[in-house]
Amino acid sequence: MKRFILLLGALLLAAAAHAQLTIDITTTGGRQIPVAIVPLAGENAQPQSVSAVVSADLSRTGLFRLVDASAVNPIPTEPSEVNFADWGARNAEALVIGRVEPQPDGRVEVRFRLFDVAKQSQLASYTYVVATAQLRATAHRIADVIYEKLTGDKGAFSTKIAYVVKRGTRYELQVADADGFNSQPVFASNEPIMSPSWSPDGSRLAYVSFDQKKPIVMVQNLAQGTTRAVAAFRGNNSAPAWSPDGRTLAVALTKDGLTQIYRMPSTGWPNPERLTSSAGIDTQPAYSPDGQWIAFTSDRGGSPQIYKMPAAGGPPQRLTFEGTYNVGPRFSPDGRSIVYVQRDGGRYRIASLELSTGQVQVLTDGTFDDSPSYAPNGKMILYEAQVAGRGQLAAVSGDGRVRQRLTSAAGDIQDPAWGPMPTN
Amino acid sequence: MKHIALCTVLLLALAGCAKDQKEAKVEDHSTPGTQQTAPRTEGTGSTTRPTNEGNITGNPLTDPSSPLSKRSVYFDFDSNEVKDEYRGLLQAHARYIADHRDARVRIEGNTDERGSREYNLALGQRRAEAVKRVMTVLGADGNRIETISYGEEKPKSQGHDEAAWAENRRADIRYAGE
To answer: What are phi and psi of A377, to 5 degrees?
Structure first.
């Protein structure tokens, strides 16, 4: 069991002034790739250290061990300046070097190289010319390259997350970078906000607003800031879920009695098509990545369990059988697993179910864990963990080995949702 | 199950569960005009409690001595059974709604904080729906009752113990304009 804490700098945003995020990572077993990330030459003169962000990104995955590279002098910036034998002696398997150089137009050029220390060969080399305000985003892109070269999987460091922050009676829907930085409020209300859901292209957020004193499904265009009520029927309107092509929203409505699942165009529609018809509660729809299925929660069998049905409706098939409370399914990006919330002896935890084998694994050890959401590379699952009555962001790897807790001093954080891969 | 039992008890004096549900359905399909005449004619029931109306000055909905000022129905954990102790309260509201054809009501269901938010939203709505069903059975026009839920989102008690949870497993009756 290995445990370390990263203290990341202060946020200086109107919404979260001086809020400090502490990221607490717990790793159990498994090999970690030792990687040396040398400070980039010239980065000290910039408002943002690139190597610090890259190091934090890689550390958070639990898949890397950072080899101390702070005392290297002079800082190597070219392959010819690298002493591979020295890095081998420090047990580094991979090495990152680079430099940041101001350009005449005020922008900066960021160059980095990734080496295989044992083979003394270059694995990647990239150059970016960006505004200084983009240094953090550039560092995430560098971390994505390193992660993919060393693990074979796509990195998800350049993605966004959405979540709800409650402070007193004030609710804010916020969008932030995947590491919790650069949070921006996109909608605020004195009434609750729930269940943010990203459109597959990341351009829109669907969510549930109680601004009209009852739950209504809204869709907000993030670039334009325009908002539209897409489901405001009699009773409750909630649990929006996008089809993979972004054209259809599955929602939970009570316009015909108890909560049932309907679908409609994501632009809204006066006559949503009813997909379920049970005598109980059917809610929390989630499309499979291929768009063929909808997983959902239903208590038609006496206790809430997870079912799936064809996306156009049709006979449901029960997927969970252990326990009396299994709710809120989300498919993994490869469609092979679902994660959900299970109750066991009064404790609510995130579990995963492998669909081909029926194998269930409990991934978290909290008391009130809720709202699991896969990273778009399928490697981590973001969720809400209650600590001392306050919601906090937490994440766990798909195999349960690596856990992170992102603690913010400000507010009660609810309903996180991990956004898609950036489109560019 | 328990729900059906309660329904049966309430309706033994009337015509029975099945028949009343049929009647409720018929009401659903009638036009607003005809709905309003039906409870109105039976609404001579207002003469059955002349003393009430005579004594109450101001709004009976807010008069503390009127059962109509009581608005909350509490539930057990994981249950949407409307307990017998709320029958009098719901009877009073059902009669008021039948007598006042402009009265529009929203029943707001709530849950305690435990469990998944979206599922709790659905559970709260089922509690509101259970209260509505009892009121409909007792003569209220279901078309003028909207059921919604706040789930666990608007706890009346902010605590995190059994007492707070019991306070928050609740459905509230709210009249339009209040």
So the answer is: -95, 0
Residue with tokens 């591979």: A84
Min Cα distance B88 → chain A (Å) is 25
- A contacts of B126 (beta carbons < 8 Å): 258-259, 281
ipTM: 0.91
Rounded Cα distance, B70 and B56, in Å: 15
Tally helices (H) and strands (E) across chain B. Answer: 7, 4
Q: How many CB pairs under 8 A join A and B?
A: 90
Among A212, A254, A325, A415, most B C-beta atoms within 10 A, so best to mutate, is A254
CA of A414 vs chain B CAs: smallest distance (Å): 9
Q: Which of A192, A281, A415 sits opposite B126 (nearest CB)?
A: A281
CA A293/CA B158 separation, integer angstroms: 39
- The nearest CA of chain A is from the CA of B123 a distance in Å of 8
Q: Does A269 touch chain B (CB under 8 A)?
A: no
pLDDT by residue, tens only, chain A of 424 residues: 444 443 333 222 333 333 456 667 777 777 899 999 999 999 999 999 999 999 999 999 999 999 999 878 888 999 999 999 999 999 999 999 999 999 999 999 999 999 999 999 999 999 999 999 999 999 999 999 999 999 999 999 999 999 999 998 899 999 999 998 999 999 999 999 999 999 999 999 999 999 999 999 999 999 999 999 999 999 999 999 999 999 999 999 999 999 999 999 999 989 999 999 999 999 999 999 999 999 999 999 999 999 999 999 999 999 999 999 999 999 999 999 999 999 999 999 999 999 999 999 999 999 999 999 999 999 999 999 988 778 999 999 999 999 988 877 678 999 999 999 998 6
Rounded CA separation A224/A221 (Å): 6
